[in-house]
Amino acid sequence: MKTSKTLDLGIVVRELVEPHNHLAILENGVLHRVRCPSLLNQLSHSLEASTSEAVRSPFGSRTIIRVDCLDYVILVDEEAYQWLQRLDRDDSKLGTKGRIWRLYSLMPQLTQEISDKIEKDLRRWHGASRLLTGWDTAPQKLRGSCPVCNKRDSLRARVSEWCAYCLNCGAFWPRETVGVLADHVRRSNGEG
Ligand SMILES: [Zn+2]
C-alpha cells in the first residue's frame, strides 16, 4: 500500500473532501474495494456513528476516538482559513472543503516556496485524518509529551503505517522521522 506521502496530491485532496473508493481489509481477511465518504465527513460524523448502537460505520472503519476527530476537523478548518487569509483571499462563504479546494487550485499561481508549504499541510491533514478515521487499526496513544508543543498525552501513533501525530499542534511524523519521535518519547519518560 502506498503511504500518503507518495500519493498524488490530487488524490490526497479528493480523499479529504470527496467520496472515493478505498481498499479495505475486511474482518475475514478479504481485501475489498469500498466506497467511503470524504475523510472530513468521516471525521465529522464520527460522533453520531459512535454514539449509536452500530459502532461500525457503513464503510467499515471503526470510530473510536470521536472527540479527537471533531477537534481535528476544527483544526483543519482553522489552518485552511489562516492560509487563505495569508494569501489575501476572501473565503468568508467557503466551508472547510471549499477552503481546501481553493488552496489546492491556487497552488500553480504561487511561488514554489509557498506552494510547497501548502502541499505539506494538505498531506499532513490527509495523513492525520486517515489515522483518526482508523481505516486499518486504531491509533495508539503515546505516553509522553509532544516535542513541538510540549503538551502531554496528545501524541497518537499508527503502528501499521509507522507514523505519528500530535492532536494539539498538528505536528506529523511520517515513517522517515517517527523514530526520532520515539526516541524523544522514551527520553521524556526517563526510559533512556
Ligand atoms: Zn504538539
List the SSEs and their pairings.
Layout: H1 9-17, E1 20-25, E2 31-36, H2 39-44, H3 46-51, H4 66-86, H5 96-106, H6 112-133, E3 140-141, E4 155-158, E5 163-166, E6 172-173, H7 178-188
Helix pairs in contact: 1-5, 1-6, 4-5, 4-6, 5-6
The structure holds zinc ion.
Residues 146, 148-149, 151, 154, 166, 168-169, 171 line the site of zinc ion.
What does this structure look like?
The protein is α+β, with helices and mostly antiparallel strands. The chain has 2 domains: 1-138, no CATH class; 139-192, no CATH class. It has 7 helices and 6 strands. A hairpin with a 5-residue loop joins strand 1 (20-25) and strand 2. Helix 4 (66-86) packs across helix 5 (96-106) and helix 5 (96-106) packs antiparallel against helix 6. The radius of gyration is 17 Å and the shape is globular. Bound molecules: zinc ion. Zinc ion binds at residues 146, 148-149, 151, 154, 166, 168-169, 171.
